[in-house]
């Protein structure tokens, strides 16, 4: 089914405030960005994560982003609940997609009550749901907008294959959502497959931040050509910048229509003056320090934000 293009940026995001944040032992093997010993049960990790979470919410709200916060359920323990973009994507035609996740302790993050509240309490309209989670029984995984980076305006999805990103499911997503799929192989400097595409690539309205060195050499130029051909100026980042989560950014839209680029302080500090200048010509950069979250969980700001592209119910805030 042909689907209309949608805006690249959203002015609303969903965030999950963790009930018991902790580095996840079930994700450590495939996520080389996790640095902290996951056997740690230090309560300080959780307390630091809450402070960083609340500061990020405040930073986004201060620039006109609507942040819809839900509390993580205390049981069962879901140590990565702070990253809702892996189980959920929301689209301008009212479609919600639910995704299969590799770690069994992440699967309870998918919560019907959150979807119900988005509609009943926050005025968003859900027209249909596409549930890909049954593929977990076949050990096939596709972890949302971690696995796939969406050029929503042009209906192009970029994805690097990994243990968490299955080729067959990329085809299923492309078919169900009417996306052209650009599939690539990408690895870190150590040669290990990059676990999620959104740590090496970010696509904005008219720019793309990408660690091109991580892309398999014979695919690299074709990927860059596709990005540029779709109207994106490429800001190339190094392996070291990728390790500082400079690829894990998200462009949003303020309530007044201004463009906002959200990232962590670590990511911002890793950028060169020229890279900052290039991005700042197009969008207003905002950053928050989430050092503890990044170190413990191997994810950053983009992972913490599930964009709400859903239409509004008649009579609700910002409905047209």
Strand content: 15-25%
Distance between the termini: 25 Å
Mean pLDDT: 91
Question: What is the CATH class designation?
Answer: Alpha Beta
Name the shape in a single word. globular
Number of E-type strands: 15
The CATH architecture can be named as 5-stranded Propeller
Computed Rg: 18 Å
Report on the structure:
The protein is of the alpha/beta class and 320 residues long. The protein has one domain (12-307): L-arginine/glycine Amidinotransferase, Chain A. Helices cover 27% and strands 20% of the residues. The strands form 5 sheets. The chain has a 3-stranded mixed sheet. Strands 3-4-5 form a 3-stranded mixed sheet, with no helix packed on it. Strands 6-7-8 form a 3-stranded mixed sheet, sandwiched between helices. Helix 1 packs across helix 9 (291-297). The longest helix has 20 residues, at 43-62. The relative contact order is 0.19. Residues 26-31 have low confidence and may be disordered.
Helices and strands in order:
Layout: E1 12-17, H1 43-62, E2 66-71, E3 88-90, E4 95-98, H2 112-120, E5 128-131, H3 144-147, E6 148-151, E7 156-160, H4 167-177, E8 180-184, E9 201-203, E10 207-210, H5 217-229, E11 233-236, H6 239-243, E12 250-253, E13 259-264, H7 265-270, H8 273-280, E14 284-288, H9 291-297, H10 301-304, E15 306-307
Parallel strand pairs: 1-2, 4-5, 7-8, 10-11, 13-14
Antiparallel strand pairs: 1-15, 3-4, 6-7, 9-10, 12-13
Helix pairs in contact: 1-9
């Amino acid at each position: 089914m042909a689907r209309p293009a949608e805006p690249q940026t959203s002015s609303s995001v969903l965030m999950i405030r963790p009930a018991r944040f902790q580095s996840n032992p079930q994700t450590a093997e495939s996520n080389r960005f996790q640095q902290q010993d996951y056997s740690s049960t230090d309560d300080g990790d959780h307390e630091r994560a809450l402070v960083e979470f609340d500061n990020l919410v405040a930073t986004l709200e201060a620039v006109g982003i609507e942040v819809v916060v839900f509390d993580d359920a205390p049981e069962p323990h879901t140590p990565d609940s702070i990253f809702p973009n892996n189980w959920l994507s929301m689209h301008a035609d009212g479609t919600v997609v639910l995704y299969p996740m590799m770690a069994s302790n992440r699967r309870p993050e998918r919560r019907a009550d959150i979807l119900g509240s988005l509609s009943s309490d926050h005025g968003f309209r859900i027209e249909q749901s596409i549930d890909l989670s049954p593929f977990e029984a076949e050990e096939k995984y596709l972890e949302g907008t971690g696995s796939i980076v969406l050029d929503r305006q042009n209906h192009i999805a970029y994805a690097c294959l990994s243990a968490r990103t299955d080729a067959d499911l990329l085809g299923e997503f492309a078919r169900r959502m009417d996306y052209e799929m650009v599939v690539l192989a990408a690895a870190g400097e150590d040669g290990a497959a990059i676990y999620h595409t959104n740590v090496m690539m970010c696509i904005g309205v008219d720019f793309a931040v990408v660690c091109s060195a991580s892309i398999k050499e014979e695919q690299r130029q074709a990927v860059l050509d596709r990005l540029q051909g779709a109207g994106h100026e490429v800001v190339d980042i190094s392996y070291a910048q990728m390790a500082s989560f400079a690829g894990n950014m998200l462009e949003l839209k303020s309530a007044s229509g201004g463009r906002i680029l959200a990232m962590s302080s670590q990511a911002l500090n890793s950028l060169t003056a020229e890279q900052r200048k290039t991005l700042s010509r197009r969008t207003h950069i905002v950053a928050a320090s989430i050092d503890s979250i990044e170190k413990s969980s191997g994810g950053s700001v983009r992972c913490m934000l599930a964009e709400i592209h859903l239409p509004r119910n008649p009579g609700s805030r910002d409905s047209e």
